Amino acid sequence: MKAVLVEKNTQRLFVGDWENPMIGDEDILVSTKATALNRADLLQKIGKYPPPPGESTVLGLEMAGVVEAIGSAVKQWRIGDRVCALLPGGGYAAKVKVPAGLALRIPDRLSFEEAAALPEVFLTAYLNIFMLGGLQPGQTVLVHAAGGGVGPAVIQLVKQFGAKVIATVRSDEKAAACLGFGADLAVNTTTDDFAVKANGFTRDQGVDVILDPVGAAYFEQNLQCLATEGVLILIGLMGGYTVANLDLRKLMLRRWHLRGSTLRALSVARKTEIVQGFVHQFMPMFADGRLKPTIDSVYDVAEINDAHARMEQNLNIGKIIVRVNF
Hints:
This protein has 326 residues and is an alpha/beta fold. It folds into 2 domains: 147 residues, Medium-chain alcohol dehydrogenases, catalytic domain (Quinone Oxidoreductase, Chain A, domain 1); 140 residues, NAD(P)-binding Rossmann-like Domain (Rossmann fold). It has 11 helices and 15 strands. The strands form 3 sheets. Strands 3, 4, 5, 6, 7, 14 and 15 form a 7-stranded mixed beta sheet that branches. The chain has a 6-stranded parallel beta sheet with strand order 10-9-8-11-12-13, sandwiched between helices. Helix 7 links the parallel strand 11 and strand 12. Helix 3 crosses helix 4 and helix 6 packs parallel to helix 7. The longest helix is centred in the middle third of the chain and has 14 residues.
C-alpha cells in the first residue's frame, strides 16, 4: 500500500510503499479517506516522539474511512461502515489497523474530512476536562493555546456541559475565533496577563480546571488563578519543562491537584474506556449538529509538506485535514 514516509536526511515527507497492516481477532481494517495533523506528528517527524513499541511508525494519530475487513471476534462493525478513530500511529497510510473498541461511527451529517478532525481533539478534551479534571456544571475551565486543534473542542464540550470557559491565544484573530466557538472570555497573552483576566472573570475565585499544553512558561501564572481544589492538567511542554521555586505550602493549603496527561501511550483497554464514555455522553450531539469538528484547511496528500508547514508556523485555527487520495 501507499503511505506518507519521512526522508531521514531532510525530514521531508514523501509518498512511498509500505507494508499492509495485519489485523487480529479484535481489530478492523479501515481504508483511509482522510487524516488530520497533530503536533505529535511534527515531533515524530524529527525523531522526538516515537510511537509506542510495536505500533506503526507511519505518522498519523487519527483518521476517517471505510471498514474493509473485520477480525473474527468483532461484532459491532460491518464491512462498509464509515468510522473514524484515534490511533497510536499509521493514519498517513492507505489502510490502517484499528482495535474495534477505538472506532467511532461517523454520523451521516459529517464528511470524511470532518470526521477525521474529531477523534484526537475531542477525546483529548473529554479525557482531561471531564475524566481527569472532574468538571462540574457551572465551573470554569481555562484552556491555553486555544486557537489550534484542541481548544475549539474544549470550548464546545464545556459549553454544552453547562460550564464556562476562558481561552488564551497569541493573536487577536484567534481570540475572535475562540469567542465565535463559544468561549466566555478570550485573552491574547501577547498583550494581557491571563491570570489577571481570569481572576477578574471569576471575581477572584479562580478557575476550576486548567488544560495546559505550554508548561513551564505558564506555570506560575496558572497557580495565580487556580481555584482552591482546582486541577491543573499538563498535556504539553511547548514552553519548557523545568519550574524553579515552587512553594509546596501553597499546594497543600489550596488543596491543588497537579496532573500530567498523555493519550497516545495509554493501553487499548484504557482508550476503549475513554471512547465509550465519550460516545455515550457526547456523540449524539454530532448527529444533531450541537457539536461540530472545526476545520482550518484541507490538503490533498500530495500537499502534505505544505500542510505541515502551516502547523509549524502556528497559522491554523482548528484542524488541518489531509485527504488520503494516493
